[in-house]
Amino acid sequence: MYMTLLPLLVAASCLVVLLKNPAFSARKLLEFFAVLTAMVAAFVLAILATLKCTERLPASVQLGAIFGVIGLGTVAMITVGIQASLPHGAPLPASAKRVNIFQRRTYVWARRLGYALLAVAVLMLVLRGTPQAMVGTIGGLFGFVGIVVVFGLWLTARRTDRWLSAVEADPWVHWKYTPEQWQKWTEGAVQRAAPEPDGAFHRGRDGKIMASISLVVLAALLFFVDAPLTMRLAIAGIFAVTMTAGLGLAGRGKAKASLLRRKLNTADLEVYFGQDGLFAMGEFTPWLTVGVYLQAACLDEREPRSLALRFQQVVAGYGSANLVPKTLSLPLPECDGVANDLARLQKELSTRCQKATITLA
Predict the structure, then answer these.
(1) What is the CA 22 to chain-centroid distance, rounded?
(2) Model pTM?
(3) What pLDDT does 250 receive?
(4) pLDDT tens digit string along 174-190?
(5) How many CB atoms lie within 10 A of CB 10?
């Protein structure tokens, strides 16, 4: 029942955010809820049919069949949700070269997940009794969530690669930078970045991560592990603290300016602007989707002069969705025709993102 109600809770929490999105429309909302209702109904019927067909089979077979139905239903919901939230994009020219940049990045996470599941399988063969049951429960939960997340990332990456192929084949504007100009821009951008103390713990940010992990693990232990309550609470706390500490050491250990310098030093010295979005510094940012949209574009007259693009990005967290601003700054190339490029961007972005504030020319 929990897995059945989860999509409804997520949809309700995102409604307020959707109302602020320029890509939102009443028709799309009605279509979304119609599809969601049909999928939830199919999900419930599939679970009931599975219980009916396996009622005379051993409990282990029945439990495995139910988990299989839940897994397939979750994958189906993710597929429909991603396909509905990401626009198809501009038609891909016949001469366009199909890229595979973002899909290759998901393969790395898929391999890491495979290694982790292999380690869990080895522990299951070595351990016995209660430790084996605990490892199996936590490993099963980790594997289920990991497979679902990697699959969702791959679907999104496949659509992003298609967008990038279309933008590179027919760009509005294509800027290239010399190594000297990019180095100058790197130094200026790093100086503007506010430093952040190494390893700083932010109660609002990191506390939410810890609480989310604790709730997920605790729910799994309460539902699927037959052990004393105190033991299940202790395991949930230890697991959550360990995972949060690992994430903190992996992602928060450098100052903000140092991370920015490393990112700029490894970035490609070219930028593509096109119908579906912007490709810069190894990232593709769409202009207008349910998850991210352009809010404003202007010129930053500080030296070195740059183009500042401000996006609003939907970030899930704590059972709800929040709008987080994201600013992307790109230096103006030192070449003829920049004024014409800005005029072209002014025209195209004003048409593509009609609710955004565009002041480039």
Answers:
(1) 20
(2) 0.69
(3) 47
(4) 999 999 999 988 888 88
(5) 16
